Each structure stands twice: as C-alpha cells, then as structure tokens.
User: Fold these one by one.
Assistant:
Number 1:
Amino acid sequence: MQILEIFGIAVALSIDAMVVALCWGAVQPTIKASHILKFSLVFAAFQALMPTLGWFAGGALYSLISAWDHWVAFLLLFFVAVSMIREAFEKGDDNEECECRSMGSDIAWGKLSMLAVATSLDALAVGFSFAMVKTPIAMPAIVIGVVCAILTALSMLAARVLSEKAARHSKKLSLLGAAVLLLIGLRILFEHGVFA
C-alpha cells in the first residue's frame, strides 16, 4: 500500500475526531494549549492503537481466510465507508449546530477516552484489512496517529472560525472519506485480478 493511500485513509479516519474537536472548541470561552495537547494525544493514541489491534486480529485469522483475503479487505473498507455514509445522513441537516455544550469546559480524561474510542472504531476494521493485504502495520499506524493529532490540533485552533462551517459540511466530509475508502478497496480487488 502506497503512502498516499495510507495518508488518505488517515485523513478519512480522522474526520470524526476533527468534528468533535471543532464542536468542543466552538463552545469554549477559551482554548488553552493544554486542551489542544490533551485532545490531540488522546485521539491520536486511539487512532494508532485501533488499526494495530485490528491488524493483529487479522494476522491471527489470515491462514483461515487467505484465499479470500482481498475480498475481506474490500468488504471491511466497504463496511467502514457505508458506516460513514450512514452517519452522514443521520447527522440531519447541513445547518445543524454542534451539540458539545454538555462536555464541559475541561473535559475529563475518561469522557475524552470514550469519545476517542467511539471515533476510532472504524480504524479497527481498517487495521484488519491491512492484515488481509499483508501490509505491515507500524508505518500506517504511526501515520494515522500523527495525521489525527495534527488535524485534531488544527481543528481546535480553528474552532472559533470554522466550527459553524465544519458543522454545515460534516456530511460532505464524511461522504468524501467514504469515497476514499471505497476507491482503495476497489484498487485492492483490481490488483488481485477480480476485474480481469
């Protein structure tokens, strides 16, 4: 898998974390450097951990499903993409406002960790798909974590200016992320001669 594809996956997986960071930042009177560091580290850690766990699970099962590995990888990416599409349409109107006021001005580590798990579950399936196409996980996990940390930090820094616009366009961002994952899944099938 090429670095550009891994970067595309990382950006797609970071969209939910970015939206949460934007929404939280938008309702805060002040955003401190400690808030940015806290959000970035927690979201990045889970975004890097989940594909690693998925990869180990996939590696353990690989011998059982090696004849269909490309289909498993495609179906997992397809599942994540469909999940992103469904979430996009469940978000309601594009003009919907962020509903992060209930998180409080100094979010607890436990609550932040739960949000990080919820926004990184898709990465578990992506890690499983990496195992199916025999892609080592170290570099993708690092890229996914670093990209998530950077995008989360940028989202919080830009929260005051971009929060309303991001909330209005979160559906489009989710659909774009889903399209990236579907295209990568189709490329995996193409490389395995499914369309030949």
Number 2:
Amino acid sequence: MGATQHRTPLDAREREDLCDLLAEVGPDAPTLCEGWTALDLAAHLVLREHFNRWTDAKMAAAKAKGLPALVDRLRAGAPLLPWCIPGLRSLLNGAEYLIHHEDVRRANGLGPRAGRPDLDEAAWKTSRLTAWRAARKIRPHGLELRTPDGRARHFGPGGGAVLTGRPVELLLYLSGRRDAADTHLTGDPEAVAALTNTGA
C-alpha cells in the first residue's frame, strides 16, 4: 500500500475501489444484498448520500440512469455536509462502503482481501455497535467477539456465544452476511441458538 493511499481516508478508498468493481462487474452482477444487483446497490448508495428515501419509485428512477451514470455520481463524492466532516465521515460512510464493497466482491467469487490491516481496524471499531445490537437481541445471554490475534470484546454476561474471526469477517456476520463471513461460532448452546435465530 503506497504512501498516497495511506493519506487517503479509508472511506474514500473504499468508495473508489467499489466504483471500479461496479464498473468491472456490470449492472446485472449479483451482490450479497438479497434481490439486489450491482445496479440496485449503486442506486441505493446514491440515494442514501443525497438524503432521499429509497422508495420503489425513486429506486426505479435512479436505476433508469444506468450504472455508468450512478458510478460517476459516486466517484464525484458525497455532499459536503455531513459526509465530509472530519470524524463523521468514517462513522457514517466507512463501514457502509466497506460492507457493500464486500457484498459485490464475494457475490462474484472474490474472497477476503489479504494484507489490509486498515480494513480490519475500521471493522473492529464498527463492530462494537453491531455486536451491541446483536447482544441485545439474545439477552439474557452474552456475546463475545474474538479475533485470531487475541483481541476480544464482551457484551453482556460471560459464558454466552463466542464469535471468532478477523474483524472484517465479524462485521459481515453481524451485518447479516453470515454465509459469506469466515467466522466460527461456539459457546453455550442456548446462546449460540439464540444468536443463530436472530437476524444479526
């Protein structure tokens, strides 16, 4: 990873890389978002950043512009407020683009990205909120996240479900991409069943 790439915020890098991938796979390529093609995903991202609720009519209108136009709109960047406020941009857009980049990659036969500790760091930060939401759904059981390098986070009482994997994989699991996430779920059988039965 070059020095220039290091200086570019992760959300901007993920945006540009996702735009490249969308252009490469084409509008009809599948994604991990059930029922959505690459065109649907691009339309969603454009509408989201411009504070439009993505009703069926607005989605249809956005998709009618075609994938190249939507990708060009995404490449142009988000509106200045609030997306470009330092600190908020990573919170608002970092995980969004990371997850949706993986949605397109993995649905089209591209596996996890190696040698990208920046992605894992971003995912580890974001996983705090997604894991907290998942843990609320399985009360009174607890949830623990573990990574191969020995990091751990606990939510609720001990002795519950234990989800192990690289941070990006944990984030994918917790955001509903379970089948695509390279994770291992162990722990108390009741807690494991509770987590498995949630939409997390």
Number 3:
Amino acid sequence: MENYSKLRFRDLKVGDRFDLGTHALSLEEMLAFASKYDPQPFHLDDESARANPLFERTSASGWLSIMLLQKLIGDFWKATQVQGLAGAGVDRIEWAAPTYADEPLQCTMLLEMVRASASKPQLGLMTMCVTLTKEHQQLATLLRITGVFKND
C-alpha cells in the first residue's frame, strides 16, 4: 500500500481509488462471530452450508465482512491526515457472493462524493464505496457509506 501519511481532506476528489490490501478471514474468527452474532446454520458448519443451495461450505456472516470493511476503512484514514468525525449514514450494503475461510479478498475504496458542508464549511462530507472482491474480480461485499470529516 502506498504511503498516504500527508494526505488531507482538501487533497481528495471524486474518483480517487485506494487499495486497502488483501485480507482473508479465518475459519476460527468466522465461527466465533457467527456463534455470537449470526448463528445461521450455513455460518456454523459445512454440512448445513452444503444443504443450502447458495453455499459450498461454511460461509462468513455478511456482517463480519462489513466489520472487516469498517476496520480497513478506519485503518486507512488513521494512516493519513484526514480526520474522521462521525458517520452520516449507510447508503447500501450488498452481499453478492459468499465468503469462505482463508479466501483472499481484495479491498478497494472509491470516493464517490467529496465536498465541504454547505452549512458548516469547516466540515467535509465524503461518500465511499468500499468493496471486497474475490478471485477474478468477483464482487463479494459492497458497502457505501457517507462520513463527516474535518475540512482542512
């Protein structure tokens, strides 16, 4: 990943794309999360997953993939001079394909809207479309969120 340590809000523009790296979820973290927060049978064991026509084996909870995206977004902005202040909303969540243990997932963030607040120009608004893609660019998870940032 490139060095973005000097990146500021004023440097950002619509169309900027950032590679947030390749990540994989372990079976242990998938099972721990599903057991506690999303105990659907296809998130807990292979046999139940195969009984469902949508899954090949135990799949990660979509909510776990969203949490992974949120962590990667936060880690990225922490490595810059861009200061996040608050979330302003989730526009879209899409779980396009199942995610399986140890599967490499490429994370990319595209800026779809970047502007100063009309009523509070010291604040900036930014809409980010963040995706996890599997092998052959197959979309697994999409998260489109808007955040409030310090406009410097």
Number 4:
Amino acid sequence: MDADPIYLAPADYSVTWPVLGGFIIFGLILWAVAIWLLTRRPDPEDGHGSLPPAALLKLRRDALRRIDEIDTAVRGDKMPARRGHHELSKVVRGFVSKASGLKAETMTASDLRERGPAHLATLIEEFYPRQFGATEADASSFSGSAAAARDVVGGWS
C-alpha cells in the first residue's frame, strides 16, 4: 500500500480571540489606574503656602491698603455697599490664598467652615447677605465689615 502522504494545512486561528484578550487586558489596566486615582489622598491645601516674613508683610500691607481704598470709596458714595462687600471678600480671599496656599478664592462658605480658618469662614458668612441679599446693603454697616476684614488680614500669621 503505497499511499501518498496526506498533507494537512495548519489550522487557521481567528483573530477575534487575541483582540478580545487585548481589550480585556487594556480594560483591566484602565480599571486599576482609575481605582488608584480615585482612592489617593488629596494633596494638603494649607501646607504649601508659607511665605517668607517680608513677603507676608508686603502682602498684608497691600491688602490693608486695598481695604482702606474700598472703605473710602463706599463712605464717599463712589461705590455701592454691595459692591464694596464683593470687593472686600475678593481682597480677603485673595490674601488668604496667597498667604496660606488655601484655595479660599474658590471655596464656598461651607468649604471654609470645614477646611479653612474659623475667623475667615465667619467673615465670609457675614458678607454673604450683604453681597447677595434681596435688599441693598446700607453704607453705615460697611465700616464694621471693613474693620472685620482688617482684623482677619492684620491678625493673619
């Protein structure tokens, strides 16, 4: 029996399974990276803003000068009290942001209560009704607001 040997061609493998395996591995890597990013501790917001004493003095002096300018403008009827409260809030928040590294410029009052200094949160909460209230804030109450802003900026260490 002299039979010719039968030649069997190699089996064709479908490309579907290696591609599917690659997608599964890629998905697992993405899942691991997402879990790692979502469970990291947030960077401390208030620990990286320490300024040298001379820079803090200049920053404080500039903020106090700006508070005085706003107070003078409101008392001289050049600026409405509502806008004055907005400006005071911006000055105090900007000062705290630069002096401490705390992102006070974008924090809400509840964020400030949770993570910020208590005296800053109290001051900003006092400004809210005068800034956003239905009635215009009166200029007579503005001098107390300016004094409170000076206390926060002047007492910052």
